[in-house]
């Protein structure tokens, strides 16, 4: 197992090299890197509460749990109970229970007893595969979407000591692909293959109190349809509530991203993207989203509340390698001969993930102020991305930005230190990728074959490309935590400050 | 012998129509018959105003209409408009369209590919290249996933 993993690491080429080089031995549990777990797709994954363990399905009937051991990931558990591929995993942070669902039409709730995970079968009463599963925020129930065109809401019945489920059927007309719970533990958003996104009430009177009214509606009996989108023309792959629950966003197979805002009478803003279809979306603040899909890189979208529009904020995976290496004459003729083109773009993907990204999970900061998120994909790899929100002092657009530090505990003061970055467009501070790894070497030195000038150009290039601007979400400031940097104006009612989100990716040149 | 001598009429039966869980499209409200804009488009073409003809043809695209004849006619008109452009003007025309226009144009381009005439494919390929540069792969995905075809 260990040997296999090392083979996988070295076989993945530069990415594997990268992960070995700057894996982070510091006490913080995150690895600022791309880690290749498998050579097959990761079907689904879930993190535990303190982000030291990840449970994932390696494209078979099992669930493997890996724990971070310093710089490496080691497999600590194998959960073998399903008879079909495991299609959904969710890890309840507070109660430390796992729920898994699979194509064998079953779901299991796993509890840790001693050092062993013990499964409990949940009868879902479905006759097609289960596709997705999510714990509710209070972890007293979970929802399973399936190909039987219904959602099973399961809760634990104390008297009989077993899990019972209730079905939401109408008016779903095709497979339910994705689910997300509203923070009030009652409303559930479901995206399905009948091209619609819907919000249902999953109120179970046995386990909870009657919910108070929300902008989505006030009467919420079980199974009530609170919102249904008009048909877009694609299967809804992923759906996400914002942190406050007043907005829901979904991505569908016709390369569109849509957002419904309950505060605007459920008006739907949609954006037709120029990329391949997106497969996963999550909110990172109340007005910005990160989505990823078949294009193998995450991208940022922002929602402007005033006009009610969505806009593309930029590609987040900007490789640091300069593509200005220049071809030799020989390579140029070879290209002309082999590919009948003389352009310099090579056919290899220069993104971190080498295949579609299928799932995004927020690691730190919650959906209101995400500071870190994780992507897994069909290339068997997992990548962790940092988000830095940098309030600007003056309401004028900055030239560019830049990076960073990998130390998580610098966030509270990082904004002020980042503001010290010169406007000239590149960071003079050395890029620290790991506490001991590359801390001493500024990028310009470690990049072979490119002089200081080259690295400057490249920094400007990437800095320019990675400039991202977020509008300050004025109206939803209740949900937005106040910026941590000193000297920043309070968020309420002030539209002068801008918030920029800085995304990092470290790809050491090979 | 393995050869069946019984009737094979059952093979012509479509059993999917009897499936109770069949996905049926929601019934569309019949929109009023779209005013046929092809005379206007033809007039613009004769005058040499290819760009305005393109905009007019896109505006009157019968996306909602059900009748195949109307769609055929619109497709023919569109093809005439597209072929009347000079190669150098294509890029400017594409840049003048908004996002929905690009998507609609892509749909017509692919519809035109389905029934190639003598030199239609060449000009359509040029249109395709320019439209792709503006609309990206997303516009092609929307052609493939569209449920209302032109």
TrEMBL record, chain A:
Chain spans, region Disordered: 1-27, 392-414, 442-463
InterPro entries (UniProt xref): ARPC1, WD40/YVTN_repeat-like_dom_sf, WD40_repeat_dom_sf, WD40_rpt
Keywords: Actin-binding, Cytoplasm, Cytoskeleton, Nucleus, Repeat, WD repeat
GO MF annotations, alphabetized: actin filament binding
Gene Ontology annotations of biological process type: Arp2/3 complex-mediated actin nucleation
UniProt cross-references to Gene3D superfamilies, sorted A to Z: YVTN repeat-like/Quinoprotein amine dehydrogenase
Compositional bias of kind Polar residues: 400-414
WD repeat feature ranges: 79-113
SMART domains xrefs: WD40
Subcellular location, record wording: Cytoplasm, Cytoskeleton; Nucleus
Predominant cellular place of this UniProt entry's protein: cytoplasm
Entry annotated with the keyword Cell division: no
Function: Component of the Arp2/3 complex, a multiprotein complex that mediates actin polymerization upon stimulation by nucleation-promoting factor (NPF). The Arp2/3 complex mediates the formation of branched actin networks in the cytoplasm, providing the force for cell motility. In addition to its role in the cytoplasmic cytoskeleton, the Arp2/3 complex also promotes actin polymerization in the nucleus, thereby regulating gene transcription and repair of damaged DNA.
Descriptive protein name: Actin related protein 2/3 complex subunit 1B
Automatic annotation (TrEMBL), chain B:
UniProt KW Cytoplasm keyword: yes
The protein, known as: Actin-related protein 2/3 complex subunit 5
Keywords: Cytoplasm, Cytoskeleton
Intracellular or extracellular location(s): Cytoplasm, Cytoskeleton
Native organism: Pavo cristatus (Indian peafowl)
Task performed by this protein: Functions as component of the Arp2/3 complex which is involved in regulation of actin polymerization and together with an activating nucleation-promoting factor (NPF) mediates the formation of branched actin networks. Arp2/3 complex plays a critical role in the control of cell morphogenesis via the modulation of cell polarity development.
Main subcellular localisation: cytoplasm
Keyword flag Cytoplasm: yes
Family membership noted in the UniProt record: Belongs to the ARPC5 family.
UniProt GO cellular component terms: Arp2/3 protein complex
GO biological process, one term: regulation of actin filament polymerization
Record Pfam families: P16-Arc
Highest taxon in the source lineage: Eukaryota
